[in-house]
Amino acid sequence: MNSPNDGPMDGESAGDLPELSRDERRRLLAFARAAVEAAARGRRRPVVEPSELTFAMRRRADCFVTLYRHGDLRGCIGGRSGAEELWRAVIESATASATRDPRFLPVEPHELPTIEIEISVLTPQRALTWSDEADLRRKLRPYVHGVSISNGFRRALYLPKVWEHFEGSSDIVAAFLSNLSRKAGDPTGTMWRDPATRYEVFEALDFGESDADLQA
Asked: What structural domains does the chain harbor?
């Protein structure tokens, strides 16, 4: 369990969600699309002109870019350093999702027409302190919190939208955290109950090419 001096977090909120206008979201998706297409075709990353960037797009923020093909996951990679401006983080994450997700082969040019892109802009991760399992369950907010867990060399992260995959579970918290533990490399799926496991939570602003309000 984390020490109270590790940056206490009451679980109510993981931070303020970023505010992006419709036009800013559409521009970021266009950057991601250009990056995926360039990566698939073996070309250089797209060049972004300063005039295309707004203040919100220049703010430093972590993001993940998720690729879907025919509704199935095709790649998902992001950063957690908070060191990059958002527009650059989007391009880098899109490129990585198309070429470096170890679960998939790189995206091929013939797949591009069927690829759909979604961006998740994250709030800063904050430590969630917990005293026991009941306390952990009380503080976690399904469908709102993304969760990062770490224990020794094992570490894994789920975005908030991953809660949806466990909607039919009789115990959604246990199902979510057990699978997250396995993703971290724990075959027993019990790492989440280990008192030495550290938790960080965050929230995410999700938007994608299929969103009705972003259609041209």
From this structure: 4-15+124-202 (3.30.1490.150), 22-122 (3.30.700.20)
